[in-house]
Amino acid sequence: MTSFEGSGADWLDSYKRYFEHDHVLVISPHKVYGPGSNDPALQLRKKGINKVILGGMSSNLCTESPLRSLIEAGFEVMVVTDATAGAIIEIYVGYAALLTNFRMIASKVDNTDNTVAAIKAAYIM
């Protein structure tokens, strides 16, 4: 198979317009928490990208680990708080804990509306 189009593993139609561009980098899924098992830093550098925006389903796994690795690799990394989720169980509020970590590690932390406005402003200039 050379394309995911129509396979059931394709992007949701409502999101395709965001992903189907030459400037969008889609990497292979990671097998551990950080990006060490795939090559995002290499792929980003090949495209001349030094700024990354992160969100993820599990903030302490899908977001924090790549955040730490990318920051250590010299990238400027922003975390979008309302595009990131975290576990909330009786004895643990993972999302709240990770917001603290994001603010201490990330280059910037903001919400979706402000992030989209900043991206639009950057493309207008």
Explain what you see.
- The strands form 2 sheets. Strands 1-2-5 form a 3-stranded parallel sheet, sandwiched between helices.
- The protein is α/β, with parallel strands linked by helices.
- The longest helix is centred in the middle third of the chain and has 14 residues, at about 60-70.
- It contains 5 helices and 5 strands, in the order ααβαβββαβα.
- It has one domain: Rossmann fold (3-Layer(aba) Sandwich).
What's the arrangement of secondary structure elements?
Elements: H1 13-19, H2 40-46, E1 51-56, H3 59-72, E2 76-84, E3 88-89, E4 92-93, H4 94-105, E5 108-110, H5 112-124
Parallel strand pairs: 1-2, 2-5
Antiparallel strand pairs: 3-4
Helix pairs in contact: 3-4
- CATH fold topology: Rossmann fold
Structural class: alpha/beta
Helix proportion: 40-55%
CATH class division? Alpha Beta
- Helix-strand topology string: HHEHEEEHEH
**Gyration radius, in Å:** 15 Å
Give the count of structural domains: 1
Number of strands: 5
Q: Span from first to last CA?
A: 40 Å
Number of helical segments with 4 or more residues: 5
| Main β sheet profile | 3 strands, parallel
CATH architecture label: 3-Layer(aba) Sandwich
Low-confidence stretches: none
DSSP strand (E) fraction? 15-25%
Spell out the CATH superfamily.
Isochorismatase-like
Strand order of the largest sheet: 1-2-5
Mean pLDDT value:
80
Please state the overall shape, judged from the principal axes of the Cα atoms.
globular
